[in-house]
């Protein structure tokens, strides 16, 4: 989770200190597994198959769809996100990077915006061989304090609307379940477009519903819970287009519909779904 607040103070961990300790434990287990698994696979396996079950742009239509994505991630020997539906958008984002950005050398520079050190995108990219060059895989978040490196991946304090990175520095940006938490969309889109080289990719997921439930009075991470509507998604795609970020795929009325609400957020007792949007820099 991230937001746009620019401050020298590190944000308090969401959920309190006990939850922060639990997340830190999960983080160390995850990155320990990644480091060991990479070394074993380097000696015993050939090229890792690429994921194919999740398109670069689309809506999570039902529970069967995230179950298929989770099963594929498991077959690919990718450490699963504990919140199983989140494996769907993570797999789609990683697939988009592999399909649209990678030239076979695994040398792309990739940033996970609003990252968490225990979330799957950067570990999965590391298992696919990205991150061999120092600083080529980075995660930024306002919650991070001192810079931390995990198996070659750099995690540091950073604002997704003002990263301080050079123009055209990145080949790809992922941003998983972040923009619904009070992020100024124009600032985020403009900064992403500035950072990406021509042909670079931005993969964004967010909470979505074709008929969003009422979130009045439901506050998490310091802002009211927000679930994007179809019109808000259309507006976001149009905004991205104005910043030379072209949608990969199409989102007509049928594509924006879903048959189930397969995601349940117990802390706020809401049912909804996810949407994944992938853009290419013109």
From TrEMBL:
Domain Methyltransferase type: 148-203
Keyword Ribosomal protein tagged: no
GO molecular function: S-adenosylmethionine-dependent methyltransferase activity
Example GO biological process: methylation
Keywords, alphabetical: Methyltransferase, Transferase
Bilayer-spanning residue ranges: none
Top-level taxon in the UniProt lineage: Bacteria
Protein name (record): Methyltransferase domain-containing protein
Species for this entry: Janibacter limosus
Species lineage: Bacteria, Bacillati, Actinomycetota, Actinomycetes, Micrococcales
């Amino acid at each position: 989770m991230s937001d746009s607040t620019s401050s020298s103070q590190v944000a308090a961990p969401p959920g309190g200190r006990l939850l922060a300790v639990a997340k830190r434990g999960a983080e160390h287990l995850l990155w320990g597994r990644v480091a060991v698994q990479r070394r074993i696979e380097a000696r015993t396996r050939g090229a890792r198959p690429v994921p194919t079950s999740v398109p670069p742009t689309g809506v999570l239509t039902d529970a069967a769809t995230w179950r298929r994505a989770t099963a594929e991630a498991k077959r690919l020997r990718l450490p699963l996100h504990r919140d199983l539906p989140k494996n769907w958008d993570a797999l789609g984002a990683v697939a988009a990077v592999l399909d649209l950005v990678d030239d076979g050398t695994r040398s792309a520079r990739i940033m996970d915006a609003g990252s968490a050190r225990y979330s799957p995108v950067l570990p999965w990219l590391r298992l696919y061989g990205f991150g061999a060059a120092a600083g080529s895989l980075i995660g930024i978040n306002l919650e991070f304090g001192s810079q931390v490196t995990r198996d070659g991946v750099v995690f540091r304090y950073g604002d997704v609307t003002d990263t301080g990175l050079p123009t055209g520095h990145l080949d790809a940006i992922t941003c998983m379940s972040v923009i619904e938490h009070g992020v100024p969309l124009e600032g985020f889109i403009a900064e992403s477009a500035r950072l990406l080289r021509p042909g670079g990719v931005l993969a964004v997921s967010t909470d979505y519903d074709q008929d969003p439930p009422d979130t009045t009075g439901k506050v998490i991470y310091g802002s009211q819970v927000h679930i994007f509507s179809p019109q808000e998604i259309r507006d976001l795609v149009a905004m991205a287009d104005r910043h030379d970020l072209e949608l990969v795929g199409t989102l007509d009325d049928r594509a924006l519909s879903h048959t189930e609400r397969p995601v349940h957020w117990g802390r706020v007792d809401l049912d909804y779904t996810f949407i994944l949007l992938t853009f290419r820099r013109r």
